User: What shape does this take?
Amino acid sequence: MGGSDSTKSEARKMTIYFDQRAEQQKAEEAAAQSEVIKKEEEKKEAMKALARLIAIFAKPAVLMLLWNWLMPGLFGLATIGYLKAFGLCIIARLIIDKE
Assistant: This one.
């Protein structure tokens, strides 16, 4: 009967196997999460580029409106159009470079 007790205790022991599906699932989740983060970063970069593009065309319009509002009345200068305001922005950018 002593031998049968040892076989019963051995039978009661659990064997734990490594589940590769869990590791694969974790790897897939990490890959999906990194892909989502990458897409968000690309979206932020696209928004920044769009904002820069809008600023390139909006700044001369603001300059033109301010010039035409202030300069003729204060200094007797002629009014300017959009292209001249765009040229002034380019000249100012060359003289006072931000980078």
Q: What stands out?
A: The helical segments are 2-12, 20-75, 82-95.
